[in-house]
Design brief:
With 248 residues, the chain is α/β, with parallel strands linked by helices. The protein has 8 helices and 14 strands. The structure holds fe (ii) ion (FE2). Fe (ii) ion binds next to loops.
Length: 248
C-alpha cells in the first residue's frame, strides 16, 4: 500500500504514491467523484475539478494563482467545479481531448441535463444534496485540446494524456511520470464500466481503453474517478468484474 495516506479535511485525503509527490484527493459530496490536486509553489495541477470549498481554502492558503486543469472526461461530476475555479483563480488553463472540449459545451453531452438519472440510485439525503449542487444547464470550455494524445510538462513532471473512449467519447487516461495513472471512470472499484450513458460505446471501450488499462503494470498507482486509489496490483481484481461484461 501507500507509504502515506493522511486524512485532513472532511472530504479530503493525501496520497504519496512515489518519491516526494503528494496528491490531494477531494471527494465531492453526494456523487463522490474524485478531484486530484498537486501543488507546487504558486501553481497547481488539478485533475477533474469538482466542487469543494476545502480546495478553495487550500488554494487561498497557498496563494495559488496559476492552475492547469486536465479532464479525464466530459461528465458533469468531473467538470462541475471548473467555472468557479475560473472565477476565483487568476490563470486557469484547461486541457482535454477535442471531443471532450466539444461535449463540455453542451449540458446534454456533459450529462448536466440528465443529472437526475445519474443520481437516481443514491439515498434521499444524497439526492437532495446533489440536487442543490448542480446547474442542469452547466457548460464550460477548454483552452487546449488534442486528438489522440498530448504530452505536457507540469513543473518537473511529465504528463501524458491518451484518448480513451468508451465510457464517453471524450475520455482520456492520464499518466503522471511513469507510474501514476488517472483512469477517470474507466476502472472503478467494485463496478463494471458504464457504457450506457449517451455517447458511451462498448466497442470503443474494448478496442481502445480496455487495451490501455489491461496493459498497465502492477506497480502503477491508479487514481480512479470514483472510489479509493490503489496499486494496479490491488485494483486488478476489479478487472474481473470489468471483464465479465457488466455494462450497466
Ligand atoms: Fe463518467
Amino acid at each position: 500500500m501507500y507509504g502515506n495516506i493522511r486524512n485532513i479535511g472532511k472530504h479530503m485525503d493525501i496520497y504519496n504514491p512515489v518519491g516526494n509527490i503528494e496528491i490531494y484527493r477531494y471527494v465531492m459530496p453526494a456523487i463522490e467523484s474524485n478531484m486530484y490536486v498537486i501543488f507546487d509553489g504558486d501553481k497547481a495541477l488539478i485533475v477533474d475539478p469538482n466542487m469543494s470549498e476545502e480546495l478553495f481554502e487550500e488554494l487561498d492558503r497557498r496563494n495559488i494563482s496559476d492552475v492547469t486543469a486536465i479532464l479525464t472526461h466530459e461528465h458533469i461530476d468531473h467538470i462541475c467545479g471548473l467555472n468557479e475555479l475560473r472565477d476565483r483563480i487568476n490563470k486557469v488553463k484547461v486541457i482535454c481531448s477535442e471531443k471532450c472540449a466539444e461535449r463540455i459545451k453542451s449540458p446534454k453531452d456533459n450529462l448536466a441535463k440528465f443529472w437526475d438519472v445519474i443520481i437516481m440510485d443514491r439515498n434521499e439525503a444524497d439526492r437532495n444534496l446533489a440536487d442543490e449542487m448542480i446547474d442542469r444547464n452547466y457548460t464550460c470550455t477548454a483552452n487546449e485540446t488534442y486528438e489522440d494524445n498530448k504530452e505536457y510538462e507540469f513543473v518537473s513532471h511529465r504528463i501524458r494524456l491518451i484518448s480513451a473512449p468508451g465510457h464517453s467519447p471524450g475520455g482520456s487516461i492520464i499518466f503522471l511520470d511513469d507510474t501514476v495513472v488517472f483512469t477517470g471512470d474507466n476502472l472503478v472499484e467494485g463496478n463494471g464500466v458504464i457504457t450506457r450513458f449517451p455517447g458511451g460505446n462498448k466497442k470503443d471501450f474494448w478496442n481502445n481503453t480496455a487495451q490501455v488499462i489491461d496493459g498497465l503494470e502492477d506497480c502503477c498507482y491508479i487514481f480512479p474517478g470514483h472510489g479509493k486509489p490503489g496499486r494496479m496490483l490491488e485494483m486488478r481484481k476489479f478487472l474481473v468484474d470489468y471483464k465479465r461484461p457488466i455494462y450497466i
